[in-house]
Every structure is written in structure tokens, then in C-alpha cells.
Design goal:
Layout lengths: L38 H9 L9 H13 L2 E8 L3 H4 L2 H6 L5 E6 L10 H14 L6 E4 L8 H12 L3 E6 L5 H13 L19 E4 L5 E4 L15 H7 L8 E5 L3 E5 L3 E7 L3 E6 L6 E5 H11 L18 E8 L4 E5 L3 E5 L4 E8 L5 E4 L3
Parallel strand pairs: 1-2, 1-4, 2-3, 4-6
Antiparallel strand pairs: 5-6, 7-10, 8-9, 8-11, 9-15, 10-14, 12-15, 13-14, 13-16
């Protein structure tokens, strides 16, 4: 390496040529190229390989602290499919006193019948419950390019010549948003930043200069270990993350019936009047209904096969399922599984057991649809 510090054009991490096992490695022969990317970004772009994220929690905290000390406009991106799982409280506390816009990405996966204005009102209400008073709330689909230009205009209106920091949880589409924005502004076809469907792509702070000399920064995603993405492999993740409009599945269940969501989650209807359960998950995720009395045996015999994901190759590392119990007290309540979707329980007075990988989380909310 030269004495001059070089950073990866894809992920922004400082480059080094001494240790191939450490972040930012690039062969010395590649340093003379006009656009240098690290070995990790090279593997992502050309082989779709996803090495582990090497940044520690302390690294993420340090970057968040850097953001909060800046006189800047903050764009907090959340995954509208996984709002709870992609909402990081640390960023809420960190951005106290700064102007913040909340952008719900992946709006294209919501059913077309959904009123997007109502979704944005719901997002604002949820943000305020979490202690954040957003300057603006928007929806977009970064990967499809839907409403990215509207979001960009809103950012330009609110930032008042300040730098812009794009922050959020891993895999919410921060880098994809910036790439799409740059393509629309410049007409260039190649991705300026490395993007991926998998958590933890951006490893350092990446700055893109704006017309007035201010900077637009893409920041590393903060990891939420409760998201389902951290329990399955790359191929399996494609099955549980929707990339097009969800088609809700409706099940009329009686007590003593169970729904399996592949082999990654299980919902038991324990007690209550017969009720509808409306499942909002990726269309490729197979949902299987059975009697609760048969569920344990079915899981043991068919997980990794009929009940997949996880696949057979992932069973050794997939955590055991842990039970969460709830009594649904209000009509039309969503049971939200971060990174997997949600199930709307139509009737009140229903008792359920939710089986999730040990370490995964789930929450209840009033139905958003």
C-alpha cells in the first residue's frame, strides 16, 4: 500500500494488501486500477458470494456517533415489509435534535389495494411513539425506482445545503437507493456502490458529492440480530424476502390447528372462536396447515424438505424453535415476525403460540392493512 489512504469504491472501507482475511483486502496488483474495490465487493459483484460482516458493534456505535455530531439532514430508511425489525432505536436516540426524514422502502411489495397515505400516517405515528418527530415521511421502491425522484426532491428541499446521511438497519436498501438516485441524476448504468440482498454490504462511510459541494453519505447498516435474515442462508433468504407484490393467504382456522411457514416459523391456534388468519409473507414461502397434535412429528420428519427453508444443508446450524405465547385481545391484530412478514388475526379473544428460531423476535401491533 502507498502512504496515501485508499478506500474501496464499492463499500467505502479502507483498503489494505497485507492480510487477505481482514476487511478491505485487495491484491497489490489491483491498486493501479482507476476504480479499486476490495476482495469482498469483487466477490459480491462477480460471484454473488456474501462473506461475513467484519465490523463490530463498537464500529457501528462509532459511526452512529459521527452522524449525530454532524450538522446534517438525516434520512432514516426502514423496510416497510419489516418496519419493526428494521427500526433501530439507537439511531432514534442518536438523531435527537436533528432534522430527520423517514423513508419506507420496498413499498412495491405491499398489496396494490393498500392506501399508501394511510401507511405513511401510520409510519409517522409509530415514529412518534418511539420518540422521533420526523420532518417528513415518504414511501418508495429503490430497486424498482418508484418515487425515488420524489424522495430526492424532498431531501433537497429539507436539507438546506447541509450534508445528508442515509442511515438504517442492514438490508433496508440504503445503497440501492443511492445507486438508483445516481443513475437518475447521471444516467450512468453501473452501480456506484456495492449492493446486495444480504445484511451488511456497506462496510464504511461512503460519500458522494452533491452539486453544491455538500456530501451525501451512505453509512453501514446497523445489525438487528432478531431478524430472520440472520438465521438462513443466501439462497433461503430469497424465499422469505418478497421482491414483488405480496398476495396475502387467508386461512380459516379452528383451535387445535397449526400453520408452518416453511420450517422457519410455526403458529399454533390454541384457544378461541374460529378465526381468519391473513398471512402477509413472500409469495415463494410455502405455508402448510396441519393439526397441532401432529405438528411436532411433522416438523421432525419434514423440516428441510417439505418444510423449507431452512434447507437440508442448513439444518445443523439452524437454531431450535422457541415458543412465544400471546392472547390477542383486539380484533385485527398483526403478529409481526421481523424479516418474515406478519399474520393478521381477525378475531379477538384468540390464544396463539408462535414458534421461532431461538434469538428471533416478534411483536404485536394493530393491523396496518
Amino acid at each position: 500500500m502507498t502512504s496515501e489512504t485508499l478506500t474501496c469504491h464499492g463499500c467505502g472501507i479502507e483498503l489494505q494488501s497485507e492480510d487477505a482475511e481482514k476487511p478491505g483486502y485487495v491484491p497489490k496488483a489491483a491498486l493501479s486500477r482507476e476504480e479499486v474495490i476490495c476482495q469482498r465487493c469483487f466477490r459480491l459483484r462477480h460471484y454473488n458470494e456474501v462473506p461475513d460482516v467484519p465490523l463490530s458493534d463498537e464500529d457501528f456505535v462509532a459511526i452512529a456517533n459521527q452522524v449525530t455530531k454532524a450538522d446534517a439532514f438525516i434520512v432514516k430508511i426502514v423496510d416497510i415489509f419489516d418496519f419493526e425489525g428494521s427500526w433501530i432505536d439507537m439511531l432514534t436516540r442518536s438523531s435527537d435534535g436533528q432534522d430527520v426524514m423517514i423513508v419506507g422502502n420496498k413499498a412495491d411489495v405491499l398489496p396494490k389495494s393498500v392506501n399508501q397515505n394511510k401507511v405513511m400516517l401510520w409510519m409517522r405515528s409509530e415514529a412518534e411513539k418511539r420518540g422521533l418527530q420526523p420532518k417528513d415521511v415518504r414511501l418508495m421502491s429503490a430497486s424498482k425506482g418508484h418515487d425515488v425522484e420524489k424522495v430526492a426532491r424532498a431531501i433537497d428541499q429539507h436539507r438546506k445545503d447541509r450534508d445528508v446521511y442515509v442511515v438504517g438497519c442492514t438490508n433496508v436498501g440504503k445503497s440501492t437507493f443511492i445507486n438508483t438516485l445516481l443513475k437518475q441524476l447521471t444516467g450512468e448504468g453501473d452501480d456506484a456502490l456495492t449492493t446486495s440482498r444480504f445484511p451488511g454490504t456497506t462496510l464504511g462511510m461512503i460519500g458522494v458529492e452533491l452539486d453544491d459541494g455538500s456530501m451525501l453519505y451512505d453509512t453501514p447498516g446497523i445489525i438487528n440480530p432478531e431478524q430472520m435474515a440472520h438465521f438462513v442462508g443466501p439462497k433461503e433468504l430469497e424465499q422469505i424476502m418478497p421482491d414483488k407484490e405480496m398476495k396475502p393467504s387467508i386461512y380459516q382456522l379452528n383451535p387445535g390447528q397449526t400453520l408452518f411457514f416453511g420450517g422457519v416459523a410455526r403458529l399454533d391456534f390454541v384457544e378461541g372462536s374460529p378465526s381468519s388468519f391473513v398471512c402477509y409473507t413472500a409469495n415463494d414461502l410455502h405455508i402448510h396447515r396441519t393439526k397441532t397434535e401432529n405438528a411436532d412429528d411433522l416438523y421432525e420428519r419434514h423440516r428441510g424438505q417439505m418444510l423449507a427453508p431452512p434447507g437440508v444443508e442448513s439444518l445443523e446450524t439452524f437454531p431450535p424453535l422457541k415458543v412465544h405465547e400471546w392472547e390477542i385481545r383486539e380484533e385485527k391484530t398483526d403478529i409481526v415476525i421481523p424479516g418474515l412478514g406478519w399474520i393478521t388475526v381477525v378475531n379477538a379473544g384468540v390464544k396463539v403460540k408462535l414458534h421461532l428460531p431461538d434469538g428471533a423476535g416478534a411483536t404485536l401491533r394493530s393491523a396496518i392493512i
